[in-house]
TrEMBL record:
One of its GO terms (cellular component) is cytoplasm. PANTHER family: PROBABLE 2-DEHYDROPANTOATE 2-REDUCTASE, REDUCTASE FAMILY PROTEIN, PUTATIVE (AFU_ORTHOLOGUE AFUA_2G14497)-RELATED. Residues 9-151 form the Ketopantoate reductase N-terminal domain. This is 2-dehydropantoate 2-reductase-like protein. Gene3D superfamilies: N-(1-d-carboxylethyl)-l-norvaline Dehydrogenase, domain 2 (1.10.1040.10), NAD(P)-binding Rossmann-like Domain (3.40.50.720). Residues 196-280 form the Ketopantoate reductase C-terminal domain.
Length: 286
């Protein structure tokens, strides 16, 4: 890579996760950051993004380009496209269409989306590109457009990134094993914040991962529960969406685990109950 040229990065989706990743990347002087925004486009274009955090320093940062659509920045050659958008049943295919104008043969795509198996559509559509899988435990919210707040303690290493694995012989798709221990915690907390239900969901997710051949620490379950006890109760992202009558990330956050459980014949009664309950809630929202 030409060291005199900045690393061009596009953040696709500027919710709490996309904004936080953008803030961290912008702190590197050799990066040039552009963003595709939706609901917060006007405020980000005028004022930039502000972050209030205990560990990464408070501050406001502006972007090289702020766009409503990828078509508006398709003239740039991006080294990385960070996908931090929501994945709902209605926009799985539209996401690929939107990304196409900004993905060149040399572009690496980073999936920082919620859930399990979310990298698969990227890998299928852009199979000649490098696909990275990111797990983010950042405990951040965007209470008003353009302002991101860190609301609770996080792990010392809040963001983990690894190369996305190609589908295995059983047809299942996994993130790198070194990331897998974050998956159970992330998916469970995004659905509920009741400790008993979290314990059951974590155990079931753990069992599915083991059956798929993913190596996990034996004390993951207790670490997950302890993490919940040590952090203030916050509304999970799916609950926030439901309260605002917005489509939820049902499949990515629990449907994909439920479907993989069926493939390896692991019983997941709590996950099954949560999955179908959320589908019914979503039908009522629509």
């Amino acid at each position: 890579m030409n060291k005199s040229k900045p690393v061009d990065i596009l953040i696709f989706g500027t919710g709490a996760v996309g904004s936080t990743l953008g803030r961290r990347l912008a702190q590197n002087a050799n990066t040039r950051l552009s963003v595709v925004c939706r609901l917060n486009y006007d405020i980000v274009r005028r004022q930039g993004l502000s972050m209030k955090t205990n560990i990464w320093n408070n501050g406001t940062f502006r972007h090289h380009r702020v766009a409503r659509s990828t078509r508006d920045v398709s003239d740039l050659a991006f080294d990385y496209v960070v996908c931090a958008n929501k994945i709902t049943a209605s926009d799985a295919s539209s996401t690929i269409r939107e990304l196409a104008p900004v993905v060149s043969p040399s572009t690496a795509l980073v999936s920082a989306q919620n859930g399990v198996g979310v990298e698969a559509p990227l890998g299928h559509a852009f199979h000649n590109n490098t696909i990275l899988s990111a797990v983010c435990n950042i405990s951040c919210l965007q209470p008003v457009p353009g302002i991101v707040q860190q609301i609770s303690k996080i792990r010392p290493h809040a963001i983990h990134v690894g190369v996305y694995d190609t589908p295995g012989p059983d047809g299942a798709v996994h993130a790198k094993e070194k990331l897998a221990d974050f998956v159970a915690l992330d998916c469970c907390f995004k659905q509920v914040n009741d400790l008993d239900t979290v314990r059951q969901l974590t155990q079931e997710t753990f069992n599915v991962a083991i059956a798929l051949g993913i190596l996990l620490p034996k004390d993951l379950l207790e670490k997950t529960i302890q993490f919940a006890r040590n952090n203030p109760s916050t509304a999970p992202s799916m609950l926030q969406d439901a309260r605002k009558k917005r489509l939820m990330e049902v499949d990515s956050l629990c449907g994909n685990i439920f479907k993989q459980a069926e493939q390896v014949r692991v019983p997941v009664p709590t996950m099954r109950l949560v999955y179908y309950a959320l589908l019914e809630m979503e039908r009522n929202i629509q």
